[in-house]
Amino acid sequence: MSVRLSILDLAPVAKGQTPSDSFAASVRLAQQAEELGYERVWYAEHHNMPSIASSATSVLIAHVGAQTSSIRLGSGGIMLPNHSPLVIAEQFGTLAAMYPGRIDLGLGRAPGTDQQTTYALRRDPSTADRFPQDVVELQAFLRGESKVRGVDAYPGKGSDELYGYFTTYKARHPGDLALVVVGEPVKPLDPHPDVITTGFVPEEVKNDAVAGCAAFVMPSYFESFSIVLAEAWAQSRPALVNGHCDVLAGQAQRSGGAVPYRGFAQFEAAVDLLREHPDLCADLGERGRRYVNSRYRWDTVLAKVERLCETAVHFHRQVVPPTATAPFARPG
After folding, report:
1. What domains sit in the chain, N to C, each tagged with a CATH number?
2. Cα separations (Å) of 217 from 52, 240, 252?
3. pTM for this model (two decimals)
4. Which residues pair with 216 in a beta bridge?
5. Cβ of 274: how many Cβ atoms within 10 Å?
6. 67-119 residue pLDDT tens
7. Which of 85, 95, 317, 323 could bond to 137 as cystine, CB 3.0-4.6 Å?
């Protein structure tokens, strides 16, 4: 089994050098790592440190990304208490759109600096206490499911890319195929006769739309677990998923219920494949349904939780001996 190796680059500024020298060295390091087959380079956020030049982490990632072609680039990590979740979603959504399939977002809860610099960043030290909630809010922005009413992160979700792929496909393959976008798109889509946007719909209407589709498409670059994809599989719908998202590609591989695509050429080929082979569509949908039923039905999930609890209790009893108790004696 091959071992994937990554590099942590702090973008050090050596004595007698300038930050420009450091950035040039970071580019050379990433290029050499790419040639040698390394998986990725991580960049860490630090502030008020003259010997480290990676304070504007996302900017450095963009600079290195423009001068490399395949190596993954990530934050290791972004100190979320220093930023609003929306800003980080916008920055890394932009990076993912610029360098598809190459961007990783790692997070930390420490300020990455001293208390005085934390004040200069206009952050309250107590913001670290909100780290779990901020992570959830950030994930929601990246999934296009904002928890802040009327606010979304642009770009990031992938719906605009899907729109471009689909309209290009229709220009090459005229016919009655239509794209139905259920819910509010992350950003407004240009009018097109074969693209239908429903806006917000009740849950039962969404379920009916999924049940009636020829295939379900999940274009997101950022998914921790796609519930709506599981819902589509539960209704035996075949799926197309963004192969640049490792989570979606992994779900497609494990389930056998989806076709991943990377770029327009693969999207076009996948759509042609499903349109020309209805038996394959049925097989993908059935595989997806079995996958969901075997892993995510409530009785299955509860059984797994019970086994986890039993295992935890078992190991706890092995490590922690029972408390010795003395016989109870009545006074007098």
Report:
1. 6-143 (3.20.20.30), 159-295 (3.40.50.2000)
2. 43, 5, 12
3. 0.56
4. 239
5. 18
6. 999 899 999 989 998 899 999 998 998 888 788 778 899 999 886 667 788 77
7. 85
